[in-house]
Design brief:
It is built from seven helices and two strands; from the N terminus they run ααβαααβαα. By secondary structure, it is mainly alpha-helical. The chain has one domain: Aspartate Aminotransferase, domain 1 (Alpha-Beta Complex), CATH 3.90.1150.10. The chain has a two-stranded antiparallel sheet with strand order 1-2. The relative contact order is 0.18.
């Protein structure tokens, strides 16, 4: 295992460059769609460095997220929500945390969606994901809500 990880460390700059390209392609490919659908994309502040370990979107509501997951699944594109807030986990509940203790965390958790992201993601595969997102039913949900 150490030899495998060491080889990755030796190639880390090339790996990071691949991941940066994938991340930037998602950001550029989804920017207009996200703006017109009230979807927030990740931002890297200029003074920060990024690991490019995932690409996520923050959707307007849990209904929007579930609709998009369903649309993408119908196209054989796996998208997942990110995590359950720690204070709602079994361990968190042991320390007397309750739902609503962290309302912002809960709201973000309900709306966050991760897109496929891995080192060998091809441009063609990424184009399929981007097209799946931009052609989703999310626009009709926004029209009904507005």
């Amino acid at each position: 295992m150490a030899a495998f990880l060491y080889a990755q460390l030796e190639a880390r700059e090339a790996i990071q460059e691949k991941r940066r390209r994938i991340w930037n392609r998602y950001r550029e490919g989804l920017a207009d769609w996200a703006e017109s659908n009230a979807v927030k994309l990740p931002v890297i502040p200029p003074e920060c460095k990024h690991t490019y370990h995932m690409f996520y979107m923050l959707l307007p509501s849990v209904e929007h997220r579930e609709s998009l997951i369903s649309d993408l699944k119908a196209q054989s594109i796996l998208s997942v929500f990110h995590y359950t807030p720690l204070h709602l986990s079994e361990a968190g509940r042991k320390f007397a945390a309750r739902p609503s203790d962290c309302p912002v965390t809960e709201a973000v958790s309900e709306r966050l969606l991760r897109l496929p992201f891995y080192n060998d993601l091809t441009e063609s595969e990424q184009d399929q994901v981007t097209a799946g997102v931009t052609n989703s039913r999310l626009i009709s949900l926004n029209r009904r809500a507005g």
